[in-house]
Amino acid sequence: MSTTQTLLNPTLHSPEVRDFEAALRRRVVGQDRAINSLARAYQVYLAGLSAPGRPLVNLLLLGPTGSGKTRLVEAAGETLLGDIRAVIKVDCAEFQHSHEIAKLIGSPPGYLGHRETQPLITQEVLESHYTDKAKIALVLFDEIEKASDALWQLLLGILDKGTLTLGDNRRVDFSRAMIFLTSNLGTAEVNKLMVGGIGFAGSAERDREELDQKIYRAASEAARRKFSPEFMNRIDRVIVFRSLARLHLEKILDIELTAVQERIIAATGSQFVFQCSPSARDYLLAEGADPKSGARHLKRAVERHLVFPLSNLLATSQIELGDLIIVDFDPAESQLMFYKDSHGALVGAKTEPCEEAAVSSAPSHRVGAARGAARRATRDAA
C-alpha cells in the first residue's frame, strides 16, 4: 500500500513570532543573530515545548559596549510585556563581594538585618509583569564578569534547575523566565579582528564569513577562560554582538529621532515637527560616531544637541504649536542652526561645540504623521 508524504518546513515561524521578530528588528539594529535566537525561544514557549524544570532560555550576550546587548532585552520587554521597564535587571557590579549576595536573596534567619534586607528577586517580582498575552519574566544579569564567585554559584542553580532559594527558604521558580547575561569579555580581541578585517576586497563573502567565525571564537574563548565549564554548559547559546558600522548607526539615529518626535507630540501643548538637512546629518553622525562607545554616544548626542536646544526654544516661546523646525549645519560656524520653516526666520542658534553631536531627520512617514498631529492640535487649541 502506497503512502503520500508531504514535505514540511520546520523553519517557518508562527504569525505571533514573526510579529515579535519584526518588532525587535525595528528597535535593535545590526544584531540579527541575537534576534533570531530570541525568536526561536519564544516560538518554543508558544508551542508549549519548553524544557520542564529550567528557564525558557539562557543566553550569554558578549560584545563591545554600546552594541545593543541591554537594548535587545529592553526591546523584548517593550514588545512582549508592553513596558521597557518590565525587565528585572541585576547589576552584577553591585555583587563583587560574597556578602553582598544578601541584597539579592535576603539574609537568612538569625543574621543581622534579616527582616530589614528584602530580596531583590522573589516570585512576586517575577510575576509582576505577566500579561494575558505572555506569562514570561525577563531577567537580565548585566556585566556578569564583575560578580563574585558566590553569585556565579547561585546562577548555576537558576540556569540548570530554574530555581532559587531565598534567605528565608522560599523558592523562586524561573521556569517561565528568559535569562540574559551580558559581558564585555573578549572586546579587545574582537576589535583587533575587526580592524584587521577592514579592507577585504572583491570576492569577500567567504572572507566575511571567516572573519565572522574568528570573532565568534575569540569572544567565546574569552568567556570560557573566565567562567567555569559547569557555568558555560548551562548556557543555551553564546551570542557575540558585532561592532556597529555607520549604516547601523544611521538606522539607530533614525530610531532615536523618531522617539524624540513622539515625545514632542505627546507633550501637552507642544506639538511641532523637526527636520534636519542632509549636511547636518552627515556632519553630526561623523562627530557623534565613536567606535568605542557605540550607539550610546549617539543617544547622548541627541539629548545634548537636539533635545536641550529644542527645550530652550520652547521655554522662550520661539516655537509654537504646529511649527515646522528645520535643523541645519553651518560649516562656517561649525554648529547647528535652528530655523522656523514658515518665514525662514532664525529662531534658534548654535549648539555648543563638543565632542559628541548627532541629529537626523525623522523618517518621512513619521514627519507626515507628526505634522498632521500638530495641525490637529492647533485646530483644537483654536
Overview of the molecule:
With 382 residues, the protein is an alpha/beta fold. It has two domains: 226 residues, Rossmann fold (3-Layer(aba) Sandwich); 136 residues, Helicase, Ruva Protein, domain 3, CATH 1.10.8.60. Helix content is 45%, strand content 14%. It has a five-stranded parallel sheet with strand order 2-3-6-1-7, with helices on both faces. Strands 8-9-10-11 form a four-stranded mixed sheet. A hairpin with a 5-residue loop joins strand 4 and strand 5. Helix 1 packs antiparallel against helix 2, helix 1 crosses helix 3 and helix 10 runs parallel beside helix 13. The longest helix is centred in the middle third of the chain and has 22 residues. The radius of gyration is 24 Å and the shape is globular. The N and C termini lie far apart (80 Å). The C terminus is likely disordered.
